[in-house]
Amino acid sequence: xxxxxxxxxxxxxxxxxxxxxxxxxxxxxxxxxxxxxxxxxxxxxxxxxxxxxxxxxxxxxxxxxxxxxxxxxxxxxxxxxxxxxxxxxxxxxxxxxxxxxxxxxxxxxxxxxxxxxxxxxxxxxxxxxxxxxxxxxxxxxxxxxxxxxxxxxxxxxxxxxxxxxxxxxxxxxxxxxxxxxxxxxxxxxxxxxxxxxxxxxxxxxxxxxxxxxxxxxxxxxxxxxxxxxxxxxxxxxxxxxxxxxxxxxxxxxxxxxxxxxxxxxxxxxxxxxxxxxxxxx
Length: 281
Known about the structure:
The chain is an alpha+beta fold. The protein is built from 7 helices and 16 strands. Helix content is about 30%, strand content about 30%. The strands form 2 sheets. Strands 7, 8, 9, 10, 11, 12, 13, 14, 15 and 16 form a 10-stranded mixed sheet that branches. Strands 2-1-6-5-3-4 form a 6-stranded antiparallel sheet. α5 links the parallel β11 (about 190-195) and β12 (about 220). The longest helix has 19 residues, at about 260-280. One of its GO terms (molecular function) is catalytic activity. Belongs to the class-IV pyridoxal-phosphate-dependent aminotransferase family.
Protein backbone atom coordinates (compact mmCIF):
# COMPACT_ATOMS: atom_id res chain seq x y z
CA UNK A 1 0.00 0.00 0.00
CA UNK A 2 1.11 3.59 -0.63
CA UNK A 3 -0.61 4.84 2.53
CA UNK A 4 -2.79 3.34 5.20
CA UNK A 5 -5.70 4.34 7.38
CA UNK A 6 -6.94 2.44 10.42
CA UNK A 7 -9.94 2.96 12.69
CA UNK A 8 -10.85 0.39 15.35
CA UNK A 9 -9.73 -2.54 13.21
CA UNK A 10 -10.90 -1.21 9.83
CA UNK A 11 -7.95 -0.95 7.45
CA UNK A 12 -7.69 0.64 4.01
CA UNK A 13 -6.41 3.62 2.06
CA UNK A 14 -6.65 6.79 4.15
CA UNK A 15 -9.28 8.32 1.88
CA UNK A 16 -11.50 5.23 2.29
CA UNK A 17 -11.65 5.16 6.10
CA UNK A 18 -14.73 6.71 7.71
CA UNK A 19 -14.91 8.15 11.25
CA UNK A 20 -18.26 8.27 13.16
CA UNK A 21 -19.64 11.75 13.76
CA UNK A 22 -20.23 10.75 17.38
CA UNK A 23 -16.55 10.12 18.06
CA UNK A 24 -15.75 12.58 20.87
CA UNK A 25 -12.55 13.49 19.04
CA UNK A 26 -14.67 15.01 16.25
CA UNK A 27 -16.61 17.56 18.29
CA UNK A 28 -14.48 18.07 21.40
CA UNK A 29 -10.93 17.19 20.32
CA UNK A 30 -11.27 14.79 23.25
CA UNK A 31 -8.25 12.61 22.64
CA UNK A 32 -4.50 12.18 22.63
CA UNK A 33 -1.96 11.42 19.94
CA UNK A 34 1.62 10.60 19.02
CA UNK A 35 3.73 10.81 15.86
CA UNK A 36 6.68 8.53 15.07
CA UNK A 37 8.88 7.88 12.06
CA UNK A 38 10.13 4.64 10.59
CA UNK A 39 13.40 3.85 8.86
CA UNK A 40 13.77 0.45 7.19
CA UNK A 41 10.22 -0.29 8.43
CA UNK A 42 11.45 0.03 12.03
CA UNK A 43 9.82 2.56 14.33
CA UNK A 44 12.23 4.93 16.05
CA UNK A 45 11.80 5.58 19.81
CA UNK A 46 8.47 3.73 19.89
CA UNK A 47 8.73 2.81 23.58
CA UNK A 48 9.11 6.46 24.59
CA UNK A 49 6.13 7.52 22.48
CA UNK A 50 3.96 4.71 23.82
CA UNK A 51 4.85 5.63 27.41
CA UNK A 52 3.91 9.26 26.78
CA UNK A 53 0.63 8.24 25.11
CA UNK A 54 -0.41 6.17 28.12
CA UNK A 55 0.69 8.91 30.51
CA UNK A 56 -1.48 11.42 28.61
CA UNK A 57 -4.37 8.93 28.71
CA UNK A 58 -3.96 8.52 32.46
CA UNK A 59 -4.05 12.28 33.05
CA UNK A 60 -7.25 12.61 31.00
CA UNK A 61 -8.77 9.32 32.22
CA UNK A 62 -9.07 7.99 28.66
CA UNK A 63 -9.31 4.20 28.44
CA UNK A 64 -6.96 2.79 25.79
CA UNK A 65 -8.51 -0.58 24.83
CA UNK A 66 -5.14 -2.28 24.35
CA UNK A 67 -2.10 -3.06 26.43
CA UNK A 68 1.11 -1.29 25.49
CA UNK A 69 2.47 -4.44 23.84
CA UNK A 70 -0.77 -5.00 21.90
CA UNK A 71 -0.65 -1.45 20.57
CA UNK A 72 2.99 -1.87 19.53
CA UNK A 73 2.07 -5.07 17.69
CA UNK A 74 -0.76 -3.29 15.86
CA UNK A 75 1.56 -0.48 14.79
CA UNK A 76 4.29 -2.81 13.55
CA UNK A 77 1.78 -4.94 11.66
CA UNK A 78 0.45 -1.85 9.89
CA UNK A 79 3.92 -0.44 9.15
CA UNK A 80 4.75 -3.61 7.23
CA UNK A 81 1.75 -3.06 4.95
CA UNK A 82 3.03 0.29 3.60
CA UNK A 83 5.60 0.11 0.80
CA UNK A 84 7.87 3.04 1.75
CA UNK A 85 10.80 2.22 4.04
CA UNK A 86 10.62 5.67 5.64
CA UNK A 87 7.17 6.49 7.00
CA UNK A 88 5.31 8.99 9.12
CA UNK A 89 3.07 7.14 11.57
CA UNK A 90 0.34 9.11 13.35
CA UNK A 91 -1.79 7.45 15.99
CA UNK A 92 -4.45 8.83 18.30
CA UNK A 93 -6.91 7.56 20.88
CA UNK A 94 -10.14 9.48 21.45
CA UNK A 95 -12.27 9.05 24.54
CA UNK A 96 -14.83 7.03 22.61
CA UNK A 97 -18.16 7.27 20.80
CA UNK A 98 -21.21 8.80 22.52
CA UNK A 99 -23.97 11.35 22.07
CA UNK A 100 -22.61 14.89 22.33
CA UNK A 101 -22.37 15.98 25.96
CA UNK A 102 -19.64 17.81 27.83
CA UNK A 103 -19.93 15.19 30.54
CA UNK A 104 -18.72 11.73 29.59
CA UNK A 105 -19.25 8.13 30.64
CA UNK A 106 -16.06 7.24 32.49
CA UNK A 107 -16.36 3.58 31.43
CA UNK A 108 -16.42 4.00 27.63
CA UNK A 109 -13.45 2.62 25.75
CA UNK A 110 -11.33 4.77 23.47
CA UNK A 111 -11.21 4.68 19.68
CA UNK A 112 -7.88 3.99 17.98
CA UNK A 113 -7.08 5.93 14.80
CA UNK A 114 -3.87 5.45 12.78
CA UNK A 115 -2.52 6.89 9.54
CA UNK A 116 0.72 5.92 7.82
CA UNK A 117 2.23 7.89 4.92
CA UNK A 118 5.66 8.05 3.24
CA UNK A 119 8.15 10.32 5.03
CA UNK A 120 10.52 12.28 2.79
CA UNK A 121 12.01 14.95 5.10
CA UNK A 122 14.94 13.14 6.71
CA UNK A 123 17.62 15.26 5.01
CA UNK A 124 16.04 18.67 5.65
CA UNK A 125 17.32 19.18 9.19
CA UNK A 126 20.65 20.65 8.01
CA UNK A 127 19.02 23.80 6.61
CA UNK A 128 18.81 26.79 8.96
CA UNK A 129 15.31 28.20 9.29
CA UNK A 130 13.44 31.47 9.81
CA UNK A 131 11.17 31.87 12.84
CA UNK A 132 8.66 34.28 14.32
CA UNK A 133 7.46 34.82 17.89
CA UNK A 134 3.79 34.78 18.95
CA UNK A 135 2.11 35.15 22.35
CA UNK A 136 1.36 31.81 23.99
CA UNK A 137 -2.43 31.90 24.43
CA UNK A 138 -2.81 28.19 25.13
CA UNK A 139 -4.17 26.74 28.37
CA UNK A 140 -2.10 25.20 31.18
CA UNK A 141 -2.14 21.60 29.97
CA UNK A 142 0.58 21.83 27.31
CA UNK A 143 2.29 18.84 28.93
CA UNK A 144 -0.55 16.56 27.72
CA UNK A 145 -0.35 15.69 24.03
CA UNK A 146 -4.03 16.30 23.26
CA UNK A 147 -5.84 16.87 19.97
CA UNK A 148 -6.69 20.45 21.00
CA UNK A 149 -4.17 22.21 18.79
CA UNK A 150 -6.06 25.21 17.37
CA UNK A 151 -3.67 27.85 18.87
CA UNK A 152 -0.76 25.81 17.49
CA UNK A 153 -2.42 25.63 14.08
CA UNK A 154 -3.02 29.39 14.03
CA UNK A 155 0.56 30.12 15.07
CA UNK A 156 1.99 27.70 12.52
CA UNK A 157 -0.15 29.21 9.76
CA UNK A 158 1.00 32.72 10.71
CA UNK A 159 4.62 31.56 10.50
CA UNK A 160 3.99 30.07 7.06
CA UNK A 161 2.37 33.28 5.81
CA UNK A 162 5.43 35.19 7.03
CA UNK A 163 7.72 32.88 5.06
CA UNK A 164 8.98 31.19 8.22
CA UNK A 165 9.31 27.57 9.35
CA UNK A 166 8.03 27.85 12.92
CA UNK A 167 6.39 30.10 15.51
CA UNK A 168 7.94 30.37 18.96
CA UNK A 169 5.49 30.82 21.83
CA UNK A 170 6.19 33.19 24.72
CA UNK A 171 4.27 34.01 27.92
CA UNK A 172 5.20 37.59 28.69
CA UNK A 173 8.96 37.67 28.07
CA UNK A 174 9.49 33.95 28.76
CA UNK A 175 9.94 31.59 25.81
CA UNK A 176 8.08 28.30 26.25
CA UNK A 177 8.13 26.14 23.10
CA UNK A 178 7.08 26.38 19.44
CA UNK A 179 3.91 25.39 17.61
CA UNK A 180 5.18 21.83 17.04
CA UNK A 181 8.72 21.89 18.44
CA UNK A 182 10.74 22.27 21.60
CA UNK A 183 13.02 25.32 21.74
CA UNK A 184 16.62 25.64 22.99
CA UNK A 185 19.33 28.24 23.08
CA UNK A 186 23.08 27.73 23.31
CA UNK A 187 25.14 30.35 25.09
CA UNK A 188 28.81 30.04 26.05
CA UNK A 189 28.67 26.27 25.50
CA UNK A 190 25.58 25.77 27.71
CA UNK A 191 22.34 24.39 26.26
CA UNK A 192 19.26 25.94 27.85
CA UNK A 193 15.64 24.80 27.47
CA UNK A 194 12.41 25.42 29.36
CA UNK A 195 11.76 22.90 32.17
CA UNK A 196 9.13 20.24 31.60
CA UNK A 197 6.14 21.58 33.47
CA UNK A 198 2.55 22.29 32.38
CA UNK A 199 3.71 24.94 29.91
CA UNK A 200 5.53 22.66 27.47
CA UNK A 201 5.39 19.14 26.09
CA UNK A 202 8.13 16.79 27.22
CA UNK A 203 9.42 16.02 23.74
CA UNK A 204 10.91 12.63 22.93
CA UNK A 205 13.53 14.26 20.71
CA UNK A 206 14.18 16.70 23.55
CA UNK A 207 14.86 13.75 25.85
CA UNK A 208 17.35 12.29 23.38
CA UNK A 209 19.10 15.64 22.93
CA UNK A 210 19.64 16.00 26.66
CA UNK A 211 21.05 12.46 26.78
CA UNK A 212 23.42 13.32 23.91
CA UNK A 213 24.55 16.45 25.74
CA UNK A 214 25.27 14.43 28.88
CA UNK A 215 27.23 11.86 26.87
CA UNK A 216 29.36 14.64 25.39
CA UNK A 217 29.90 16.48 28.69
CA UNK A 218 27.89 19.47 27.49
CA UNK A 219 26.35 21.61 30.21
CA UNK A 220 22.54 21.73 30.35
CA UNK A 221 20.24 24.16 32.16
CA UNK A 222 16.52 23.36 32.20
CA UNK A 223 15.44 26.89 33.12
CA UNK A 224 13.17 29.54 31.60
CA UNK A 225 14.85 32.05 29.30
CA UNK A 226 13.63 35.32 27.84
CA UNK A 227 13.12 36.55 24.30
CA UNK A 228 16.12 38.82 24.86
CA UNK A 229 18.22 35.81 25.90
CA UNK A 230 17.12 34.03 22.75
CA UNK A 231 17.92 36.91 20.42
CA UNK A 232 21.40 37.24 21.96
CA UNK A 233 22.20 33.51 22.09
CA UNK A 234 25.04 31.90 20.18
CA UNK A 235 22.48 29.50 18.63
CA UNK A 236 18.72 29.03 18.65
CA UNK A 237 17.60 25.47 18.03
CA UNK A 238 14.35 23.55 17.56
CA UNK A 239 13.60 19.84 17.81
CA UNK A 240 10.68 17.59 16.95
CA UNK A 241 9.99 14.03 15.81
CA UNK A 242 9.63 15.01 12.16
CA UNK A 243 12.13 17.90 11.89
CA UNK A 244 14.83 16.33 14.11
CA UNK A 245 17.21 19.16 15.14
CA UNK A 246 17.24 22.43 13.20
CA UNK A 247 19.02 25.71 13.87
CA UNK A 248 17.57 29.17 13.34
CA UNK A 249 19.05 31.90 11.19
CA UNK A 250 16.40 34.58 11.70
CA UNK A 251 13.66 35.51 14.18
CA UNK A 252 11.12 38.21 13.35
CA UNK A 253 13.37 39.28 10.49
CA UNK A 254 16.44 39.71 12.73
CA UNK A 255 19.50 37.46 12.15
CA UNK A 256 20.25 35.13 15.07
CA UNK A 257 22.69 32.37 15.93
CA UNK A 258 25.46 31.10 13.73
CA UNK A 259 28.10 31.50 16.43
CA UNK A 260 28.35 27.87 17.56
CA UNK A 261 27.85 25.80 14.39
CA UNK A 262 30.11 23.01 15.63
CA UNK A 263 27.74 22.35 18.55
CA UNK A 264 24.73 22.21 16.22
CA UNK A 265 26.51 19.82 13.88
CA UNK A 266 27.56 17.58 16.77
CA UNK A 267 24.01 17.31 18.08
CA UNK A 268 22.59 16.68 14.60
CA UNK A 269 25.23 14.06 13.85
CA UNK A 270 24.77 12.23 17.15
CA UNK A 271 20.99 12.26 16.86
CA UNK A 272 20.96 10.99 13.28
CA UNK A 273 23.41 8.24 14.26
CA UNK A 274 21.04 7.23 17.05
CA UNK A 275 18.13 6.96 14.61
CA UNK A 276 20.14 4.92 12.12
CA UNK A 277 21.68 2.64 14.76
CA UNK A 278 18.29 1.81 16.23
CA UNK A 279 16.59 1.19 12.88
CA UNK A 280 19.24 -0.75 11.00
CA UNK A 281 18.77 -4.46 10.34
